[in-house]
Design brief:
The structure is a single chain. The chain is built from nine helices and no strands. By secondary structure, it is mainly α. The radius of gyration is 20 Å and the shape is flat.
Amino acid sequence: ERQPDKSRLLILFAFLLGLAIGNHYTILILAIPLIYWLLRTMGWRRLLSPWYVVALALGLSVYIYLPLRASQSPPINWGGADTLRGFFWMITAEPYQDYAFRLSRPELIGRIFSWVRLFFEQFNVLGVFLGLAGAYFLRKRVQYLFDATVIFLLMISIYSISYGSRDSVVYMVTGMLVFSL
């Protein structure tokens, strides 16, 4: 049986990844494990095809809109992206950098306990058992996808637990969804 060519899907993935990064940097928490999985299954040579790089760059081109729009004197010009300094302020998410990994030890311990409580509230003991059983079978059948899943769950958990805002728990929504799958 002939295997379908996945090149078009990978081009679409690269383009959508660029668009997603243009929307919110935390998409990298999902993208890094996915890229790891693709690298392990396809190899560097195929993944670094010029078509994928161009598609990623096209997706990232949404950043061009920032200085263009900011230069038109909009009523709200948050960060002043029409200047080089303002543009970098915006694309590096400078206003939010102080929230990352800035909790005190007691706050961090409290967040860990809250995370564990939320996890068991969402899944209960049976759900946790089924999720772990699913992970066991995934590991046996598709090792690299299992690895990517564990990497993602660890990264999103660390980020959401240690992010210093009151609503950081919303970052766990995708982690809970992936665990449930």
